[in-house]
Amino acid sequence: DARVTQTPRHKVTEMGQEVTMRCQPILGHNTVFWYRQTMMQGLELLAYFRNRAPLDDSGMPKDRFSAEMPDATLATLKIQPSEPRDSAVYFCASAIYEQYFGPGTRLTVT
Amino acid sequence: AQSVTQLGSHVSVSEGALVLLRCNYSSSVPPYLFWYVQYPNQGLQLLLKYTTGATLVKGINGFEAEFKKSETSFHLTKPSAHMSDAAEYFCAVSDDPGNTPLVFGKGTRLSVIA
Questions:
Q1: Which residues of chain B neighbour A97 with C-beta distances below 8 Å?
Q2: Which chain B residues are within 8 Å of A50, Cβ to Cβ?
Q3: Residues in a beta bridge with B11
Q4: pLDDT confidence of A84, banded at 50, 70, 90?
Q5: Paired strand residues for B77
Q6: Rounded CA separation B43/B49 (Å)
Q7: Closest chain A residue to B3, measured at CA
Q8: pLDDT, tens digit, for every residue of B86-107?
Q9: What's the rounded Cα separation, in Å, for the pair B67 and B5?
Q10: DSSP calls for A40-109
């Protein structure tokens, strides 16, 4: 039963620290999405990739967020420096005909 | 641009009663429509999806939804609510879910009263 995995599942950090979230897409899925869920904004797209190339990162604050796919088995989302307003659940989804979501990373920035 | 409106941020029903969660969408192209469920502190689980063909779609846990193009709606129903149905439900739209992002509604929290 292939699944999208995300690490860490939970992260608590202090303001100003760097945070890296990782996602392992399902083997063979060539499109990867990053979404963020907050109480105020709901679920919103941050960025997505096809065949490891970034297609749209307009949802990300450019000055502090970065997303990459170093290889086909790993997608990363980095925040540097983190701020309390970044506290949210970050979901990764991989897709071939539909999107399959990972369990999410719950980030708390104090 | 696509958008999704879910009417009612919170719906409360009695156990055994009909569940109706409303979703209206906006799309300039034939849409793919989805309902996801999220239990507390968990990820998103696909309940059901409409792609093409039959407009009445059956999903897991006894849920179903009907695509009504004329009303741009995709309401979620279940004949008899169970306590375990208490969760957050999200409606989403995409024009090509394998290749383009999902646009989500704000979600509806379903409470089931014993």
A1: 97-98
A2: 99
A3: B110
A4: very high
A5: B20, B64
A6: 17
A7: A44
A8: 999 999 999 998 999 999 999 9
A9: 15
A10: TTEEEEEEEEETTEEEE-TTS-TTTEEEEEEETTEEEEEESS--GGG-EEEEEEEESSSEEE---EEEEE
DSSP string, B20-47: EEEEEEE-SSPPEEEEEEE-TT--EEEE
pLDDT digits (tens, 9 = 90+) for A15-46: 999 999 999 999 999 999 999 999 999 999 99
Beginning with the edge strand found earlier in the chain, give each strand of the sheet holding B19-26 in spatial order. Answer: B3-7, B19-26, B73-78, B64-68, B56-58
Measured between alpha carbons, how far is B19 from A68 in angstroms, rounded to an integer? 41
Does A101 lie at the interface with B, CB-CB under 8 angstroms?
yes
A62 against B6, higher pLDDT: B6
Question: Rounded distance, CA B15 to CA B9, Å?
Answer: 19
CB-based contacts of B8: which residues, under 8 Å, 6+ apart?
B21, B22, B108
CB A89 within 8 A of CB A6: no
pLDDT on residue A28: 94
pLDDT digit string, tens, across residues B44-75: 999 999 998 899 999 999 999 999 999 999 99
Each residue of A44-70: b (16+ CB within 10 Å) or e? ebbbbbbeeeeeebebbeeeebbbebe
**How far B103 CA sits from the closest chain A CA (Å)?**
7
